[in-house]
């Protein structure tokens, strides 16, 4: 990859109830880490990551704004929807409430965001309900697994609601890293497809930016990381 | 006005009797109701506006709710009424006009406007309209509300959905007046609200602000560019999320290119001349300072990549050391180099410039490239432009020089860098001609002139040299022991810089070469003790003027602060100092103290205390020798004198960032007043003040410790010092062991090559041996056989002999004897 660091910049927002793991997903994406005790987000936090879109040979810079799930920040976080090209709508598979609330979050996004925004519904924390056998589809764990976190939203249920609403869908775990990057990549792919179809002609979406033809960016960043003479 | 009088007339009753203003305002307020015609409402608003000046309270009381209704219902529809109502509200909320109770009324009205979010929402929505006055007056009103009740407006703003976008939109307005107003409103809006800062960054505030700067002509732009840059500053300072976002963009590069500095530059590349030599005026310097501050935020916070940090540090260093930027801007640049500087200044090549005399700063000479470290030391020691202004001791010039000292201090924080520099200052190990003395050492070791008048420029150089050198030795036992070995040859180097230039400037034969050949050259510590003694004598000479005495004091302070930090916890150096006669010099000063002379004696006591405390090596003057002297001076007196330094402004007013003081010495009767006003001076740096404060108590207690007792500091740390010494033993043992093992290893590895050969040899030898053994056994057997044979023969012979004897033949006896002997 010479000449360019990225072909596109996509702005993403991450929303959903408090404590469903939004910040954890972002930290997993950008730093490949998992924090057991992250602080609740106040307002928003920024993070970014370069991803390669498989099969397309395109490099996309994801600029992600991780928003607070706490109700009192709702009005602040809304301001971020308008400028976004992609949205990760996150719930916690062990919390039915967070899944039900996703409807409100989606309504908010629909109200404030660009009509062409790409949304992916992410059921997080699947590591808590992993079926050891992995045989077949997960079912609602009954009392048979006391003390363990119970799955409260089945995969089918999430999938079907996503289909109804025209959202992409994935189950993921910020803790194990499972499907985290995939979630972002799938959303980015969808945005790229929309670009190809001309949905964002003339850069109309504020959340999508084409790289300038100049190659400065890449050279710099490569130089930066490779530089040793400074020490 | 004409319009106003019409309104008055219209409102005057048919009878023509004059009405009270209250009545008028009441009627006008009634007309604000949506039931009236728009034109009437407009007229009423205009009339009210005219009345605010004289009847602010009444208009507020009666008309405010109506005005707010007009604002939300009519302003969007009708630009004229919009303008009028906005201006009226503006007047009502003004806290600084000339009406009585202006402030109180303004705040009261502000509170009413902000009673709910409605007005603020309307105002931000109105920003979205292009009509000039609508935008302009909305901006003014929002600014006024922010001035009065910032937090309330901020919280409404965060809830308003249209807010961020319309703020960004006004930043794009091409009309200058609007843009200026927008910038000052945005400044207020995001003040201390990281949420608003983030939202605005997200909405593209950086892009818009940098566009403004570029459109205004970059740093050559005027006050608008300045405003935009200070908005960028606010968006980034204390906001790590925005900093990460900013780093993602191309704006860090833009910062460099606005200053004409390349984004990519290697250690050895010179900075471009377009950058180094520019035309400067005051506005440009202000803009550039803002740019530098932004670089400072990025370079001083976590998360920058190596490239970014290098380029910014380099840019700051270049501007500070090798440019024609105004002195104040240079200090700003140097101060922004982060304390944890990671870029090695010794490897960065800098090309300084010098103004050609008589060209009024329009022509510049380029000097030889030198390492940034050398240039920094040079700047600190001699001032801007190679000391061509060395005599100038203005606030700005001293700020620059102390900024250079601070960069040096930060750079040598790392032990290995300290030691590396000191190592380079040591005399050469072989017998070669000593190189010219580096300026830093020269300034310390050079004997101050007592014949001609003391040159304040030289004093300052020595004073700063003592601060620089303190940074090299403070709290580092290893550095101190290296420093003890420095033997200045006292040949001033021709070149500038800390180290000797590689090309080797021709060495001038030392003028003081008539030194006795046998006498070992003086160490730096000895030279310092002598200079201290000389300066202390000179300050109290009869014929010295007050002003000159003050210069001597400054010199003394330099020597004493350096010695205190050097001798602290270092018995070896204490021994050297005492052997050089340091004690009597100090005692003499302390003895003849006068009421108004406290600073120097206080420091003398401090140093004497250190000498007592850390006098732990055997020698002529021991603790036991010192104790009676201290007792004669009186321990309480000593402590009292030492502590009096805390009352001295020159000591008291020093802070981490403020060590340059306005000149407070005697005013010469001749010189112009302005000269004195601008004059500044340096007495202490923060590192020393901090050092003094951390250690004075130890010294204070030490004074009253008996000579044979553990000195206070070691007593307190018995455990630690025992631990250290035992660890030191362990380390020594281990080092010895390692050395042994290494030796063995060396030998083994040397022989291991031969081992194979030896083994072969052993094999052949042993086979030879066994062959030989075999042979020997064979021979032995043969011999045995022979013996047996011999024996048989002897027996036989004896038999034959006796047979012969019996046969009567003569047989020799000796043979018989022989045989017997053999048996
Ligand atoms: N087991 C498990 N725990 C997770 C996972 N993701 C997040 N958590 C935990 O869930 C808690 C909340 O995570 P956060 O990332 O702070 O949640 P958030 O959505 O950012 O919360 P707000 O910022 O308050 O909106 C933390 O204790 C995380 O350690 C996951 O995938 N698996
Ligand atoms: Mg969070």
TrEMBL record, chain A:
InterPro entries: P-loop_NTPase (IPR027417), Rab_GTPases_membrane_traffic (IPR050209), Small_GTP-bd (IPR005225), Small_GTPase (IPR001806). Pfam families: Ras (PF00071). It comes from the Eukaryota. One of its GO terms (molecular function) is GTP binding. CDD domains: Rab. PANTHER family: DRAB11-RELATED. Belongs to the small GTPase superfamily. Rab family. This is Ras-domain-containing protein. It comes from Amanita muscaria (strain Koide BX008).
From TrEMBL, chain B:
Residues 391-701 form the Vesicle tethering protein Uso1/P115-like head domain. It comes from the Eukaryota. Residues 811-823 have a biased composition (Acidic residues). Residues 724-782 form a coiled coil. InterPro entries: ARM-like (IPR011989), ARM-type_fold (IPR016024), Uso1_p115_C (IPR006955), Vesicle_P115 (IPR024095), Vesicle_Uso1_P115_head (IPR006953). Keywords: Coiled coil, Golgi apparatus. Pfam families: Uso1_p115_C (PF04871), Uso1_p115_head (PF04869). Residues 801-823 are annotated as: Disordered. It comes from Amanita muscaria (strain Koide BX008). GO terms for cellular component: endoplasmic reticulum; ER to Golgi transport vesicle membrane; Golgi membrane; Golgi stack. This is General vesicular transport factor p115. GO terms for biological process: endoplasmic reticulum to Golgi vesicle-mediated transport; Golgi vesicle docking; intracellular protein transport; vesicle fusion with Golgi apparatus. Residues 723-823 form the Uso1/p115-like vesicle tethering protein C-terminal domain. It is found in: Golgi apparatus.
């Amino acid at each position: 990859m010479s000449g360019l660091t990225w072909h596109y910049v996509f702005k993403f927002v991450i929303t959903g109830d408090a404590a469903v793991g939004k910040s954890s997903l972002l930290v997993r994406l950008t730093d490949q880490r998992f924090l057991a005790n992250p602080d609740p987000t106040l307002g928003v936090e920024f993070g970014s990551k370069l991803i390669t879109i498989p099969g397309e040979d395109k490099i996309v810079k994801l600029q992600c704004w991780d928003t607070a799930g706490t109700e009192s920040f709702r009005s602040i976080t809304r301001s971020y929807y308008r400028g976004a090209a992609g949205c990760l709508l996150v719930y916690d598979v062990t919390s039915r409430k967070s899944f039900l609330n996703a409807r409100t979050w989606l309504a908010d996004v629909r109200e404030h965001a660009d009509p062409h925004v790409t949304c992916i519904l992410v059921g997080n924390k699947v590591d808590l309900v992993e079926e050891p056998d992995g045989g077949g589809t997960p079912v609602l764990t009954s009392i048979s697994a006391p003390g363990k976190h119970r799955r409260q939203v089945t995969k089918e249920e999430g999938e079907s609601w996503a289909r109804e609403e025209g959202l992409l869908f994935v189950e993921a775990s910020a803790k194990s890293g499972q499907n985290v990057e995939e979630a972002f990549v799938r959303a980015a792919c969808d945005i790229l497809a929309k670009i190809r179809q001309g949905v964002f002609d003339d850069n109309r979406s504020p959340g999508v930016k084409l790289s300038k033809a100049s190659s400065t960016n890449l050279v710099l960043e490569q130089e930066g990381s490779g530089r040793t003479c400074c020490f | 006005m004409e319009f106003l009088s019409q309104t008055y007339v219209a409102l005057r009753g048919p009878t023509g009797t004059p009405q009270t203003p209250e009545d008028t305002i009441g009627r006008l307020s009634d007309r604000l109701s949506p039931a009236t015609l728009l034109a009437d409402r407009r007229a009423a608003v205009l009339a009210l506006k005219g009345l605010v000046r004289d009847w602010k309270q009444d208009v507020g009381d009666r008309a405010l709710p109506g005005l707010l209704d007009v604002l939300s219902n009519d302003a969007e529809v009708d630009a004229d009424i919009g303008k009028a109502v906005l201006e009226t509200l503006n007047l009502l909320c003004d806290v600084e006009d000339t009406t009585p109770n202006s402030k109180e009324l303004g705040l009261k009205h502000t509170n009413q406007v902000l009673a709910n979010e409605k007005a603020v929402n309307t105002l931000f929505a109105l920003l979205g309209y292009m009509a000039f006055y609508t935008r302009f007056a909305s901006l003014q009103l929002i600014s006024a509300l922010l001035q009065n009740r910032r937090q309330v407006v901020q919280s409404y703003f965060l809830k308003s959905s249209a807010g961020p976008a319309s703020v960004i939109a006004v930043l794009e307005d091409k009309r200058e007046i609007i843009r200026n107003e927008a910038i000052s409103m945005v400044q207020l809006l995001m003040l201390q609200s990281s949420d608003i800062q983030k939202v605005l960054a997200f909405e593209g505030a950086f892009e818009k602000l940098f566009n403004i700067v570029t459109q205004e002509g970059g740093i050559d732009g005027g006050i608008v560019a300045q405003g935009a840059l200070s908005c960028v500053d606010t968006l980034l300072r204390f906001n790590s999320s925005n900093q990460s976002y900013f780093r993602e963009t191309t704006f860090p590069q833009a910062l460099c290119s606005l200053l004409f500095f390349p984004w990519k530059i290697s250690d050895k590349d010179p900075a471009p001349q377009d950058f180094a030599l520019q035309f400067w005026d005051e506005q440009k310097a202000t803009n550039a300072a803002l740019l530098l501050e932004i670089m400072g935020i990025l370079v001083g916070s976590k998360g920058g990549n190596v490239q970014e940090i290098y380029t910014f540090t380099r840019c700051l260093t270049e501007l500070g050391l090798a440019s024609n930027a105004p002195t104040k801007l240079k200090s700003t640049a140097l101060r922004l180099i982060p304390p944890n500087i990671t870029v090695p200044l010794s490897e960065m090549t800098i090309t300084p410039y010098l103004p050609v005399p008589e060209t009024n700063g329009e022509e510049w000479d380029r000097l030889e490239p030198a390492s940034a470290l050398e240039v920094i030391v040079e700047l600190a020691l001699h001032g801007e432009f190679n000391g061509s202004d060395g005599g100038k001791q203005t606030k700005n010039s001293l700020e620059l020089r102390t900024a250079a000292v601070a960069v040096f201090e930060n750079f040598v924080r790392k032990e290995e860098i300290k030691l590396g520099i000191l190592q380079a200052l040591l005399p050469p190990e072989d017998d070669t001609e000593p190189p010219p003395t580096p300026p830093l050492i020269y300034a310390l070791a050079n004997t101050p002139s007592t014949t001609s008048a003391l040159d304040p420029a030289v004093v300052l150089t020595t004073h700063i040299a003592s601060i620089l050198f303190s940074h090299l030795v403070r709290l580092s036992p290893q550095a101190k022991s290296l420093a003890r070995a420095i033997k200045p040859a006292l040949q001033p180097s021709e070149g500038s810089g800390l180290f000797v230039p590689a090309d080797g400037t021709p060495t001038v034969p030392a003028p003081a070469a008539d030194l006795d050949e046998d006498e070992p050259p003086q160490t730096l510590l000895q030279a310092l003790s002598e200079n201290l003694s000389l300066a202390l004598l000179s300050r109290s000479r009869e014929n010295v003027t007050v002003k000159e005495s003050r210069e001597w004091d400054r010199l003394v302070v330099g020597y004493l602060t350096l010695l205190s930090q050097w001798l602290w916890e270092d018995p070896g150096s204490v021994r050297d100092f005492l052997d050089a006669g340091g004690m009597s010099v100090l005692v003499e000063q302390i003895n003849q103290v006068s009421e108004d002379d406290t600073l120097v004696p206080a420091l003398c006591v401090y140093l004497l205390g250190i000498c007592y405390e850390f006098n732990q090596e055997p020698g002529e003057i021991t603790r036991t020798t010192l104790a009676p002297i201290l007792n004669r001076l009186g321990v309480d007196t000593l402590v009292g004198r030492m502590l009096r330094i805390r009352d001295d402004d020159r000591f008291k007013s020093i802070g981490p960032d403020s060590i340059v003081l306005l000149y407070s010495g005697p005013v010469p009767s001749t010189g112009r007043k302005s000269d004195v006003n601008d004059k500044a001076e340096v007495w202490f740096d923060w590192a020393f003040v901090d050092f003094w404060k951390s250690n004075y108590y130890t010294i204070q207690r030490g004074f009253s410790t008996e000579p044979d007792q553990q000195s206070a500091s070691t007593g307190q740390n018995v455990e630690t010092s025992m631990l250290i010494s035992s660890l030191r033993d362990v380390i020594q043992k281990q080092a010895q062991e390692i050395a042994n093992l290494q030796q063995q290893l060396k030998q083994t590895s040397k022989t291991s090559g031969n081992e194979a050969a030896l083994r072969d040899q052993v094999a052949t030898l042993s086979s030879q041996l066994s062959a030989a053994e075999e042979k020997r056994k064979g021979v032995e057997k043969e011999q045995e056989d022979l013996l047996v044979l011999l024996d048989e023969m002897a027996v036989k012979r004896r038999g034959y002999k006796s047979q012969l004897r019996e046969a009567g033949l003569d047989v020799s006896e000796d043979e018989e004897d022989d045989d017997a002997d053999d048996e």
